[in-house]
Design goal:
The protein is α+β, with helices and mostly antiparallel strands and about 270 residues long. About 45% of the residues lie in helices and about 20% in strands.
Length: about 270
């Protein structure tokens, strides 16, 4: 757990592979997670999954932000669902006092921090049984995670998810703000960026591992997504603040607009 004042207009990081992160900003901004952007108001709750490529851009006056890492219990009896961004303003006034107290005591009493994390999760989480729309998305995520190393079509993705293609497209757009094709591409690029920045695998090997064996197409996708070549992205692992060197919000927005117009014609094409 940490608390700090967000002076920068922009911050970029890759979330640790073993931790989820709760971000509680007291300022307005825009967050991009694996290329998917969403605005947030002051006193929102932002939930980051492990290995996520995250960028936070402040759009208002500077303010404090709290960062809390946690790892879910693998045998939890009552799993909870979370949106990437959700309001937390009602609880934040009181929680701010407790978080400041916890930071002062963290060296002496980690149990206080653990209790606060549990409180936040229980306040913000939704029982999965009450969140019916997310069951299909959960199946889609699991299928994509397990199949990133191979090519598959929209038809195969819908079959694995258990809903029709049209319903899956509507669901993804409503809940995630992207089409299924865009989600798959962003998942491939997120994994690619992780491998390029943290593994010794060659660029060609990374391309195969994320299901884009055509090296020319892989190079094009990386450049469209991140604004740099795979080799340049790999070099970013030694750069303290890579967002000083490139920005990708505009490229991702343009890419989504182009992909959205073609979504209906990709049913049997590889995605």
């Amino acid at each position: 757990m940490s608390g700090l004042t967000f002076y920068r207009e922009r911050q970029f990081f890759t979330q640790a592979p073993q931790w989820y992160m709760i971000i509680l900003p007291r300022f307005a901004g825009e967050i991009s997670v694996n290329g998917r952007s969403q605005t947030f108001a002051p006193d929102s709750l932002l939930m980051m999954p492990p290995r996520a490529l995250v960028q936070i851009q402040r759009t208002g006056p500077e303010g404090d932000v709290y960062l809390l890492n946690f790892s879910p219990h693998p045998e939890a009896d009552s799993p909870l669902g979370f949106s990437m961004v959700q309001p937390y303003d009602r609880e934040m006034t009181v929680m701010d006092m407790w978080l400041r107290t916890a930071i002062d005591r963290i060296a002496f009493n980690k149990a206080t921090v653990n209790n606060l994390i549990w409180t936040i999760l229980l306040q913000a989480g939704v029982e999965l049984s009450e969140w019916q729309e997310h069951s299909a998305l959960g199946r889609m995520r699991r299928f994509v995670d397990q199949s990133l190393g191979q090519a598959f079509s929209m038809t195969e993705l819908a079959e694995a998810t258990g809903v029709s293609q049209n319903h899956l497209i509507r669901l993804c757009r409503a809940e995630l703000g992207v089409t299924p094709q865009q989600y798959v591409r962003e998942a491939r690029m997120s994994r690619a960026s992780e491998l390029l920045m943290s593994s010794p695998a060659s660029i060609k090997e990374v391309a195969h591992l994320v299901g884009v064996p055509d090296l020319q197409r892989f190079n094009k996708l990386v450049r469209e997504t991140f604004g740099v070549s795979p080799r340049q992205l790999r070099n970013e692992r030694s750069t303290p603040d890579p967002m000083r060197r490139y920005s990708r919000e505009r490229q991702m927005q343009d890419q989504r607009q182009k992909a959205g117009s073609k979504a209906g014609s990709l049913a049997n094409k590889e995605i």
